[in-house]
Amino acid sequence: MENGSVTSFILMAYTQLEDHRYVYFTGFLLLFIIMVLANVVLIFVIYTNRSLHEPMYFLMCNLAVNGIYGSISLLPSVLGYLTSQSYEMSLTACLLQIFCIHTYASVEFNILAVMGYDRFVAICQPLHYHQIMSHRKVCALIAFSWIYPCILFGLYFILTVQRTFCHRFIEKLHCTNFELVILSCLEISIHSIVGLVVNVFLITLQFLMILFSYAQILEICLFASRDSQKKAIQTCTPHLLAVINYAVGCFFEVIQSRFNMNHVPYKARIFMSIYFLIFPPLFNPVVYGVSIQAIRVQIFKLFITCKNKVTQLSVMIN
Question: 7 by DSSP, 3-state: which?
Answer without folding.
Answer: coil
